[in-house]
Design a protein that fits this description.
single chain; Glutaredoxin; two-stranded antiparallel ribbon; ubiquitin binding; UAS domain-containing protein; UBX_domain-protein; UAS; Thioredoxin-like_sf
Length: about 160
């Protein structure tokens, strides 16, 4: 995830079952396609693992994957899984479905200049407030400081009698 965050790219996760026809087809028809490669180079960092690897086991423990091959987009800063493909029994992960979905995701989410997030966030400049002037931005309401409570004096201790 650190590599994807440093490159300002979304983490594209692919957990596969080695030797399974659907996984082999995904490698041959989707990941090797020129248009998909160009899209990956510009917006995504591909993290591909076999379901038997320890990395994939840790991923599946955190993000449930009911079917293989599993394809998902994860935010590399927060670890939130933003999109997933191939989870429904009737859904086939192929180039015809995945390429338009990844293209739409890349169009709707920016990853330029370190600002990973929905595209509509890029248009809004964050409001910054400083206490040293400079104006602009929104200021927080100040809180009144509470005075420390005075504790009542403890009752006097009885004196010990000496015998």
């Amino acid at each position: 995830m650190a590599t994807a965050a440093a490159a300002h790219k979304w983490l594209l996760v692919n957990v596969q079952e080695a030797g399974a026809l659907r996984s082999l087809t995904l490698n041959r028809d989707v990941w090797a396609h020129d248009a998909v490669r160009a899209l990956l180079d510009g917006h995504f960092a591909l993290w591909q693992r076999s379901h038997q690897s320890t990395d994939a086991s840790a991923y599946v423990a955190y993000y449930p994957a009911s079917r293989l091959p599993h394809v998902a987009v994860v935010d590399p800063r927060t670890g939130e899984r933003l999109a997933v493909w191939g989870e429904r029994p009737d859904e086939v992960v192929d180039r015809g479905g995945l390429l338009p979905a990844l293209t739409a995701f890349a169009a709707d989410h920016v990853c330029e200049g370190g600002a990973l997030g929905p595209a509509h966030w890029a248009d809004k400049a964050p409001e910054v407030s400083t206490r040293r002037g400079g104006g602009g931005g929104r200021r927080r309401p100040t809180r009144r400081r509470r005075r420390p409570r005075k504790r009542p004096a403890p009752p006097p201790r009885p004196r010990r009698r000496r015998s």
